[in-house]
Amino acid sequence: MREFTDWIKGRWGKAVKKTAAAVCALCLCMPQTVYGRPAVSSGNSIQIKDIPPAVSDSKNTNKVSFYRKNGTLYKTVSVDKEGYITLPGIKNTSACTFMGWSDKPGQTKAPKYETGQRIRINRNQKLYAVMFRRNREPDLKENQLEKVNLSKYRKVIFVGDSRTRGMEKTFLVDFGKVPKGVSMIARGGQGLYWLKQTAVQRLFAEVRCPASEKRPAAVIFNLGANDLSYCNAYITYMNQLAEKLKARGCKLFYMSVNPMNNAMRRSVYKNETKIRDFNNRLKAGLSDSFTYIDTYRFLMRTGYSTLGGVGKTVRYDDGLHYDSTTYKRIYNQCIKKINGK
User: Fold this and answer.
1) Any idea what DSSP says for residue 263?
2) What 3-state DSSP class applies to 230?
3) Per-residue pLDDT reduced to its tens digit, 6-64
4) What is the spatial distance between Cα 103 and Cα 111, in angstroms, rounded to a whole number?
5) 77, 126 in Cβ contact below 8 A?
6) pLDDT, tens only, 287-302
7) Residue at which a domain ends, from 96, 112, 136
8) Chain mean pLDDT for the chain
9) Fewer CB atoms near the end CB (10 Å): N or C, the chain?
10) Strand runs (DSSP E) across 161-212, as ranges?
11) Rounded to an integer, what distance in angstroms lies between the CA atom of residue 168 and that of residue 164?
12) Which has the minimum average pLDDT: 16-20, 122-126, 130-134, 329-333?
């Protein structure tokens, strides 16, 4: 004690003598254990044995390892500073469509996670590519297609872009005609501007009917893939258009923008995240005049093929346009929905 006090006094003067004494007295009153370790007294001092080092917040170093269908490692991604990762996509193979990711190997559809999702990771984790085997997709014959209930509707009109045109071509190539009671207004690469300037006039002409006709025309819209950033404009225009079409005896439906694999295209204008965002916002913003047909979820649950050639000769995979088997299944799902099944 004296030595300590003399040292303080010599360094800072008399003013701190009482303070130094108080500090030393406090030290003598310390408990005999610290952090569960023995505190050993030696004269007027206390020595603490094996004090554990201070624990500091460590950086989150969790990683996710992504594996291909064949079990080989695709890549390993570290979480960001907030503990999240954004899920990557991988290319389709010649036999399979990449659907998303699962924590179980060997899954072929209904992925737990989708490309572009941002998820929180609390530990090192393995995720496995969900690959849909295209040869497992049923190829519907003409007599297996859902028939339009013509006692309920006078006709069904699809209005859309290149995917709707692909559906129309599928029927013309496979069966020589579109199904009975169905017509299609479609043009590749188009969106809201085309709908306003061109398609709506054709649509008004299609739905014209005698005053004595009591059956409505069912109109199924499938636009948005080419201008995903214009969702608010779509909502505003579609809700305005709905009143004009209802006055012309129409019942209205809007089909979701359906899934794609942007790893096959690397497009900056359309990708999986933008499609999901468009669908969610459109569904919430459309008025009660529309019935929403969620074929996006149907395809993610059951699988789909993006071998975009129609017919038997042209076969290419752009990750966006579908095989004829998928087009027929999308059509069937729509007709089931409007028929009330």
Assistant:
1) G
2) helix
3) 544 454 444 444 444 443 343 444 444 444 444 444 444 444 344 444 443 457 789 99
4) 9
5) no
6) 999 999 999 999 999 9
7) 136
8) 87
9) C
10) 182-186
11) 6
12) 16-20
**Which residue bears the tokens 């503990």?**
83
Q: CA torsion angle for 118, 121, 127, 132 (degrees, to 10)?
A: -30
Tell me, what CATH number does 85's domain have? 2.60.40
In a domain, 55, yes or no: no
My answer on whether 120 and 197 are in the same domain is no
Q: How far apart are CA 276 and CA 128, in angstroms?
A: 22
**Token duo for residue 54:** 């201070």
Cα 307 from chain centroid (whole Å): 21
CA–CA dist 230, 234 (Å, integer):
6
The boundaries of the domain holding residue 182 are 142-339
Model confidence at 192, pLDDT cuts 50, 70, 90, reads very high
CATH number at residue 334: 3.40.50.1110
Tokens standing for 257?
A: 């923008």
Buried b or exposed e, range 170-208, using 16+ CB within 10 angstroms: bbeebeeebbebbbbbbbeebbbebbeeebbeebeebbe
Residues constituting the chain: 341
